[in-house]
Every structure is written in C-alpha cells, then in structure tokens.
Design brief:
It contains nine helices and 14 strands. The radius of gyration is 19 Å and the shape is globular.
Length: 280
C-alpha cells in the first residue's frame, strides 16, 4: 500500500508528547518512526527547545528528517546537517521590548539569534521567582547578564518571560502586541511542571505551523495529508495548521475538545494515533 496517500508528513512535539516523563521515546513510537521513514513519509520534530536542547534527547542518527526548533524560528535538515531556515527579531525591536520588560522589573531571558540561540542574556526582576532561578541553575553556563541601559547590537531569537499567573501573562500579552506589530506572543506551560506560565515572544512569522508549511512547500506535500500531535498551548499553531491533528490525553482539558484524542505520552500516543489513519 502507498501510505503516503494517507499521510505525507508527520510532525510531533517533544516534551509531553513524544517524550515520556524520563525523556525517552517508547519502543512502539520508535518503530513507528522507522516505519514512516521506510515509506517516505516526512518526519518532523516541532519543538520549543533550541537545537542544543533537542540534541540532548534526539541524538544524531535518530529517525527524523527535520527539526523545527525554537517553535519554528529555525529548521534543521537532519540529512544535510544544516540549518536551512531561520527567523529572528530585529535588533531595534529587541532593544525596545527589553526596555519595556526591564521597566516593569520582570524576570526574563533573551536568546541570541539563530543559530546561536543556545546562548542567552538574563535579567532578574524586582520579585524573586523560583522558576527563573530553577531555569538559571540548568542554563547558567550559557547565560550572560543583561546590563540595564546598555543596548544590544545584534538580533535575537526570542524572549522568555516567566509569570506565576495566567492573568499577568494576558495583561502583558495585550500590551506587547498592541505596541509591536512585528512580533507574536505565545503561551506555554512550564516543562518543569511547576505551574508557572511562560511567555515566549518571537518574530510574527515564527510558528510551528509556518515551519511545517515551509517543509510541505519544499516537498510538494498537500495539506490534506499533513498530520500533527501535541500537548500544550504552544502547539496550537501546529495543530491548527495540519489536516489531521491530535492532542495527547495529558494536555490541558480546555484544549482537548478542539482536536482528535490520543493516549498520553506515557502510553505511546504518537504511534497509536498514526495507526488510526494508516491502518483503518
């Protein structure tokens, strides 16, 4: 059977979707990835992780064709070993947004432009934030202090602002989007599973969905044969783009009704959902 007539491209989020709690991939899911490759179905990781963080869990030689990292700010071609797409925030806008966040004394990180976005600047706000400090403890060797009043001289991939409540997130999102028409604001749940709300600020053209569109155009893959699976708010652009879209059982309850239902990341939701369409 020509399975490509049913699914031409499969895109999956990593944390909380393909990766289990111990950051491993189940045997069933790995076997499905190999099967997809054998039938020339394009396999894409679509993740909020930067590429260095992707390689911690998806080493070279893993059964993928592309990695859309940093929520689609960059695309890595696994066959050629090259970054083939990048989209950063212009330096003028970077400095303007940073000034707003500093004036509000918020805790945030600012990541350098792709391909150097493994490195970041950090700014400690006026209120101690355990999540900010926890993140710093994991990434301090890649982080430099953002000096107040000293403008940056290069573009950047994204901002990460950490909040304790969704209300604080919504208030700043409204303000930022009203003043900057070249950026977009995304919400993500903390991958550390602490209950904090993460705000990610990107160039307006950056999204997992746009990255998949770019790959589809490259391979002439029709929209009706696109498949994706995710687990969180920052997967919405991806799930809303693809024709076949699943959310795993461990996703937020308020989002599940919008998409097809898959078992949790602990129960190989990735391969189970694909079987529904390839072998029905």
């Amino acid at each position: 059977m020509d399975y490509k007539t049913k699914i031409g491209l499969v895109a999956t989020d990593l944390d909380g979707t393909l990766l289990r709690k111990d950051k491993s991939i189940s045997r069933e899911d790995l076997e499905m990835l190999e099967f997809l490759g054998e039938h020339d179905i394009v396999r894409v990781v679509a993740t909020g992780r930067n590429y260095r963080k992707v390689k911690e869990v998806i080493p070279d030689g893993s059964p993928f064709d592309y990695v859309a990292f940093s929520s689609g700010a960059g695309i890595y071609d696994c066959k050629s070993g090259e970054i083939i797409y990048r989209q950063n925030i212009a330096v003028e806008t970077v400095n303007q947004i940073a000034a707003v966040l500093v004036a509000k004394r918020l805790n945030f990180y600012l990541f350098r432009g792709v391909p150097d976005n493994s490195f970041c600047w950090y700014y400690r706000g006026g209120k101690l934030c355990e999540e900010f400090e926890r993140y710093y403890s994991f990434h301090h060797e890649y982080a430099s202090l953002l000096e107040e009043g000293v403008p940056l001289e290069s573009d950047a991939c994204q901002f990460l602002v950490i909040f304790e409540s969704p209300e604080d997130f919504s208030e700043l999102k409204t303000e930022i989007e009203a003043h900057f028409d070249t950026i977009k604001v995304l919400r993500a749940s903390s991958p550390l599973e602490t209950g904090y709300v993460w705000m990610e600020i990107f160039h307006r053209s950056v999204s997992k969905g746009n990255a998949i569109q770019w790959i589809c155009d490259r391979h002439n893959i029709p929209h009706h044969s696109t498949f994706s699976i995710g687990n969180d708010y920052n997967d919405l652009d991806l799930l809303d783009f693809t024709s076949i879209s699943y959310m795993v059982e461990n996703g937020p309850d308020e989002l599940k009704h919008k998409y097809l239902k898959a078992p949790s990341h602990q129960e190989s939701g990735f391969s189970n959902s694909i079987r529904n369409h390839l072998f029905d």
